[in-house]
Hints:
The structure is a single chain. It is built from six helices and two strands; from the N terminus they run H-H-H-H-E-H-H-E. By secondary structure, it is mainly α. A two-stranded parallel ribbon has the order 1-2.
Amino acid sequence: xxxxxxxxxxxxxxxxxxxxxxxxxxxxxxxxxxxxxxxxxxxxxxxxxxxxxxxxxxxxxxxxxxxxxxxxxxxxxxxxxxxxxxxxxxxxxxxxxxxxxxxxxxxxxxxxxxxxxxxxxxxxxxxxxxxxxxxxxx
Length: 138
């Protein structure tokens, strides 16, 4: 298990709240179990952060900010590619197994990809979305 500590003199008003933690996790499409594994903590610890039983350590806030930045880079790069297409479409994945078979280099779960696709769809008019086992998006 990994231990996260706060920098000395960490002001309470700069700490990530339990609500902010959960909103960011859900916005990224990450389950509590996946995030716990990624952070090297127990699922129970993640639940306690979300319930406000434990304060969210600053190192965890920084890790979530990094995940947000990496997700934003992915979303932006896909949007850039799709805006040049006459009939933009993307494929997404039902399961983690399916996603990792197609993209073994990406450590995130399929739920993260679907959440990213939802963000992409907000920016790309007429975006067709399909699962990989369906026909190509029209």
